[in-house]
Amino acid sequence: MALFMSTSHAWRTFAAALSLSFSALVSPAAVAESRAPNVVLILSDDQCWNDYSFMGHPNIQTPHIDKLAAESVTFTHGYVPVSVCCPSLASIITGLYPHEHRITGNEPPRPEGVTGNPYVTSESFRADVQKMISFIDEVPTLPRLLGGQRGYVSFQSGKWWQGNFSRGGFTEGMTKGFPSPGGRHGDAGLEIGRKGMQPVYDFIDRAGDQPFLLWYAPFLPHSPHNPPQRLLEKYLSQTDSEPVARYWAMCEWFDETCGALLGHLDERGIADDTIVVYVCDNGWIQDPKSPRYDLKSKRSQYDGGIRTPIMVRWPGKAQPMTVATPVSSIDIAPTILRACGLPVPEAMSGINLLDVQAVRDRKAIFGDCHLHNAVDISNPAENLTYRWCIHDGWKLILPNKENVTTRAGSGASGSGEVELFRIEEDPWEKRNLAGDNPEIVQKLQGYIDAWWTGI
User: Fold this and answer.
1) Structural domain contains residue 349
2) Cα–Cα distance measured from residue 249 to residue 243, given in angstroms and rounded to the nearest whole number
3) For labeling, which of 137, 194, 203, 321 is most exposed (least CB within 10 Å)?
4) What is the domain range of residue 341?
5) Is 252 left (phi over 0), alpha (psi -120 to 50) or beta?
6) CATH number of domain containing 102
7) CB 213 within 8 A of CB 156
8) pLDDT digits (tens, 9 = 90+) for 196-226
C-alpha cells in the first residue's frame, strides 16, 4: 500500500476495507445505553518503529504484537509529537500537544554549575517538579473523562511521571509518585512486566462487571537492557554487538509480556468486549558500541525518535487492516472517547482513527520537540527545539536555533538547519532537500505556523 493519502489507490483500499466495519460501529447514543467497552492501552518504552517482526525487522521476534497487529486497524506510520517519554506519555493520556498541556520535558531547569545529588535534593528542584506535575491537574485525561462520565474504574501500571497515579484520574495504580523514593517516573509501577503481571490481573478481576481502563506502560524495552539469559543468548548468536543483542532481547521480552496480558483477556472471556490500543512513547536506535542510543532516535526530531506503529483492536467493530496513512498519538484519546460514547473535549484536536472521513480529510500531522531539561517550566516556547509536520509525502523540520545550537547539552540535537525530507522514499532522513524545494518549505512552514508559531 502506498504511504500517503494523496495516493488514491491507498485511500480506496482503506475506505473499502473500512466500509463494513464503520456501518457496524456503535453510535455514541447506543454506547451510552449499553455497557461500554473496556480499554487497554499498551505503551512500549523506547523502541524504534521497525523493531518488530511485522514491521520487517530481520532479527527481532515479536509474535504476540504481530498477532495484535493482524487483528487491529494498524497504522504503520504513526507518530508521537515529541521524542522523549514524559511529554509523550502526557500527550497520549490528554490528547494534547506538549505545548498545550505544558509538560514539555523530563526535568525542570538545572541551575548552572549544579549537578548530581545537590540538584535533585534542593528545595527549588522539588518545587519545580511539583509545578510540572500540577499541569496534569489542569487538562482533561482519559481516566477522568471515562470515570466521571461513564463510571470506568482505571489502573495505572508502568511508566508514570505525573506524581501519584491519582493525579491523572486513575482510580487505582502502582505509582506513589514524587516525592516518594523512586517517584520520578514510576517507582513501584516500573516493576510491571519485569517482575510479573499479577497486579494487572488482580485489577481486571476486581473490576468485575464495571468497564475498565488499563494503562500498561512497562519499563520495557527501556534500559537497563538486562533481559532473561535465555533471550540474551538467542540474540548473541545473531550479532557481534552485545549492546544490540541486549536491546533485541528486551524487545522480545516486552512482546512476551504483551502476550501474557492479551492472553489473560482471552482467558477471562472479555477480549471481545475490550478495545486494545498500542503505541510507543518514543523511538530508540541502539548504538552498537555502547548501551546508549543513536543521536537520530530518542530525543531527536527524526523518525527514529517519533515514528511508531499505532494499533486499534476492537473485535466485531473495527475490521482488521493495515493502513499507511500517517496518524498521531494525539488521535488516541479522541478515538477512545468516541468508541466509549463520549464527546471529545474541544481542546483535543486529534481525530477518531476509526472515522474514515476524518483520516482522509486531515491535511497534515504536526509535532513539537523540546529540551530534556526545561528552561522555563511555564512557557513551552522557551523549551522548544523543533517543530515539524508531515504532508503529502514530505516532512519539514523547523529548528529553534537558540535552543538547538546553544543548549545542546540540555537535550537538543542536529545542525539547526531547516530540513526537508521526501519521507516516503527516504525513511531514515539522509537527504535534506530543503535547498532544492523552497516552495515546498514555504508551503509546509505556513502549515506549521498556522498550527503553532512556537513563540
Assistant:
1) yes
2) 10
3) 137
4) 8-362
5) alpha
6) 3.40.720.10
7) no
8) 999 999 999 999 999 999 999 999 999 999 9
Grid cell digits, residue 168: 491523572
- Any idea which residue has 525542570 for its cell? 108
How many domains does one find in the chain? Answer: 1
Of 213, 210, 161, which Cα lies nearest the Cα of 190?
161
**pTM higher than 0.70:** yes
| Pair 246, 289: CB distance under 8 Å | no
Instruction: Please list, in sequence order, all residues whose beta carbon lies within 8 angstroms of the beta carbon of residue 442, skipping any fewer than 6 positions away.
Output: none
User: Is 446 contained in some domain?
Assistant: no
378 belongs to a structural domain: no
Provide the angle, in degrees to the nearest 10, between the axes of the packed helices 242-268 and 229-236.
130
- Phi, psi for 184 (deg, rounded to 5): -55, -50
Task: Give residue 55's pLDDT.
Answer: 98
Please report the beta strands in 196-330, taking only residues with DSSP state E, as ranges in sequence order: 212-217, 274-280, 307-313, 321-323, 327-328
Query: Which position has the grid cell 526545561?
Result: 374
Name the 3-class secondary structure at 116.
helix
Place of cell 493519502: 5
The cell numbers describing 30, all together, are: 447506543
Closest listed residue to residue 80, CA positions, set 49, 41, 39, 40: 49
Which parts of 267-374 are beta strand (E)? 274-280, 307-313, 321-323, 327-328, 365-370
Residue type (1 letter), 431? R
SS3 content of the chain, % helix, strand, coil (to 5): 40, 15, 45
